[in-house]
Write a structure and sequence with these properties.
By secondary structure, the protein is α/β, with parallel strands linked by helices. The chain folds into two domains: about 180 residues, Rossmann fold (3-Layer(aba) Sandwich), CATH 3.40.50; about 240 residues, Dihydrodipicolinate Reductase, domain 2, CATH 3.30.360.10. It contains 15 helices and 22 strands. The strands form four sheets. Strands 8, 10, 11, 12, 13, 14, 18, 19, 21 and 22 form a ten-stranded mixed beta sheet that branches. Helix 5 links the parallel strand 5 and strand 6. Helix 8 crosses helix 15 and helix 13 crosses helix 14. The longest helix has 18 residues. It is globular and about 55 Å long. The two termini are about 25 Å apart.
Length: about 450
C-alpha cells in the first residue's frame, strides 16, 4: 500500500491560515491531539551521530504527500528532535504542511531525482524518513550511507516483469554497508507493508513453524470519494502498479507470480465492514517475509478488496492502454498515457474531507508450536471520519504515516538496536506497536473466521 509523492520555503513557524481547517474550534481540537503526543513520547538516549554525541537529533521527512504530512505532524510534536526538515518538489505541499506545524520547521524544495536536490534535502540529517515514491529508494539509501544516517521508507518498487523480483532485494543487499556505519535501514514501515510485518512478527514469534501468512487490505478498492468515480487513497501510480502488475505469492520455498485479479475470494473483514471481494496484488511482503522470519514459511499471499465496478474500471483502463508507460504520438506530440491518467486523478492528500468508509488491514497467521496448531488474527481499522477528526487527513494517510513516526521514536529511544537493512519483520514489534497505538493507531485481535475482536494488548 501507501507510498506518497514528494516537496520550499525557508525555516518558519507554522500558521493555520493555509491549513484548510474549517473553524477555530476544529483547529484547536486537532492542535490539542498533535500536542498531546508530546506527553506520550519520551526520548531516553541520544542518537549516535556522525557529528559526535548530541542530546538532540535532526530528522528529515522526504516527501510530504498524504502519508508524509502525517509523519511530519506527529514528529513535530516529539521531544528530542533538534531540527525537523520537510522536503518535496511541490511548493504548495511544503507550504501547506509547514503551516500546520507549530514549531520551527525547515522546508526545502528539492527534486529527489537530481543529485544536487537530494543532497540539499538530506544534508546533516541523523534520520532520513523517505515518504516519497519508491523509485527514489535506492538513491536515498545511497545518500543515507554517504552522510551516515539511519533510514526508513514506506514501501518498495515491484516489477512488471513476472520473471523479475521487486526492487526491495537490491535494497536488502545494502545490509553490510549499513552495518559498517553502525546504522539501520528499515524498509517498508507504513501500514502495508509496515504494520503488516510487525503484526506478523508478533503472531509468529511463539511459532516453531509458520504454515501460512495471509494479508488482506480494505481501502482504495471500495472507498467512496465525493465528486470522483475513482480516487486511490495513496499514490495513484503505486496503486495501479500494485493492482495491474503480476502478484507474488510464496508457496513452499519459492515465489510464484500470478496474473492481475487472480485468486478471487470473498473475505470476512472485521466489523463494521464485513465481507468484501479480494484479489491478489503486487506487494513485497510475499517476497520478504520468508527471508526475514525464517521458520520454514510455507505460504504467504496479499490481497486487496476491490469492488466489482472498480475492478471493471481498472481492467478497462488497462485494456485501453491508459496505464502504458511508452510514449504515443498525439497531434504531433509525444505523450505517455499513464501521465495523462495520473493528471486526471486527484492527489490523495486532497481527499481528507471527502473520503467515506474505512481503511482496514488484516493479518492472519497459522503455524505449529510444540507440535500443536496455533493461529492469530490481528488488524487495524479506522474510519476516514475518525482520521479527519484526529488530524485532518483520511484514514489510509494516517495509518501509513503514524507507524514511521512511532518507529523514529523507538529508534531514538534505544528500543531498536538492530543494524543493517531489514523490514519490520526483523524487529521486536512491541516497542513500535505500543508507540503507534499511543499515536492513535487502533489495533485489534480476534479469532480467524470471525468479524469480532478486542483491543490488542502488547
Amino acid at each position: 500500500m501507501p507510498r506518497s509523492r514528494h516537496t520550499g520555503r525557508s525555516a518558519s513557524r507554522g500558521s493555520t491560515e493555509k491549513s484548510g481547517l474549517k473553524d477555530d474550534s476544529e483547529i484547536a481540537r486537532r492542535r490539542e491531539f498533535v500536542q498531546s503526543v508530546a506527553t506520550i513520547v519520551i526520548w531516553n538516549i541520544a542518537l549516535p551521530s556522525s557529528r559526535g554525541s548530541e542530546v538532540n537529533v535532526d530528522v528529515a521527512v522526504l516527501g510530504v504527500g498524504a502519508a508524509g504530512e502525517v509523519a511530519a505532524l506527529l514528529l513535530a510534536s516529539q521531544k528530542g528532535i533538534d531540527r525537523l526538515r520537510i522536503a518535496d518538489v511541490r511548493k504548495g505541499r511544503l507550504e501547506h504542511v509547514a503551516s500546520r506545524i507549530d514549531c520551527p520547521v525547515e522546508a526545502v524544495r528539492a527534486d529527489f531525482g537530481k543529485k544536487e536536490g537530494l543532497r540539499k534535502a538530506c544534508r546533516g540529517a541523523d534520520v532520513l524518513l523517505n515518504a516519497s515514491i519508491p523509485m527514489y529508494n535506492e538513491a536515498i539509501m545511497q545518500e543515507s550511507l554517504r552522510i551516515g544516517s539511519h533510514y526508513l521508507d514506506l514501501a518498495s518498487e515491484g516489477s512488471p516483469d513476472p520473471k523479475q523480483p521487486s526492487r526491495i532485494h537490491a535494497q536488502l543487499r545494502l545490509d553490510e554497508e549499513f552495518r559498517r556505519i553502525d546504522r539501520v535501514a528499515i524498509l517498508g514501515l507504513g501500514v502495508a507493508p509496515g504494520l503488516t510485518n510487525l503484526l506478523t512478527r508478533l503472531g509468529t514469534e511463539p511459532m516453531d513453524r509458520i504454515d501460512a501468512i495471509r494479508i488482506r487490505v480494505y481501502g482504495s478498492g471500495y472507498a467512496h470519494v465525493s465528486d470522483h468515480v475513482f480516487a486511490p487513497l495513496f499514490s495513484p501510480e503505486t496503486f495501479l502498479e500494485e493492482v495491474l502488475w503480476p502478484a507474488p505469492v510464496w508457496k513452499d520455498d519459492h515465489n510464484e507470480k500470478l496474473p492481475p485479479f487472480s485468486g478471487e475470494e470473498t473475505f470476512l473483514f472485521p466489523e463494521p465492514i464485513g465481507p468484501a471481494i479480494c484479489f491478489n496484488v503486487n506487494n513485497e511482503e510475499c517476497e520478504t517475509m520468508p527471508l526475514i522470519l525464517g521458520k520454514g514459511v510455507r505460504f504467504v499471499d496479499f490481497k486487496y478488496a476491490i469492488a466489482p465496478p472498480r475492478k471493471a474500471l481498472l481492467e478497462a483502463l488497462y485494456r485501453l492502454g491508459l496505464t502504458g508507460r511508452e510514449p504515443i504520438e498525439v497531434k504531433g506530440q509525444k505523450v505517455v498515457p499513464l501521465d495523462v491518467l495520473l493528471a486526471l486523478l486527484p492527489d490523495p492528500s486532497s481527499l481528507a474531507d471527502r473520503a467515506e468508509g474505512y481503511t482496514c488491514v488484516v493479518v492472519e497467521v497459522e503455524g505449529l508450536r510444540e507440535g500443536r496448531a496455533v493461529s492469530a488474527r490481528y488488524w487495524t481499522c479506522m474510519s476516514h471520519a475518525d482520521a479527519y477528526a484526529r488530524l485532518g487527513v483520511q484514514a489510509t494517510a494516517f495509518l501509513t504515516g503514524a507507524p514511521p513516526a512511532a518507529t523514529v521514536d523507538a529508534l531514538l529511544s534505544g528500543a531498536i538496536e538492530r543494524r543493517g537493512v531489514t523490514t519490520g519483520g526483523g524487529l521486536n514489534p512491541v516497542p513500535i506497536l505500543r508507540r503507534a497505538m499511543a499515536l492513535g493507531v487502533p489495533l485489534f485481535e480476534g479469532p480467524i473466521g470471525s468479524a469480532k475482536g478486542k483491543k490488542l494488548v502488547v
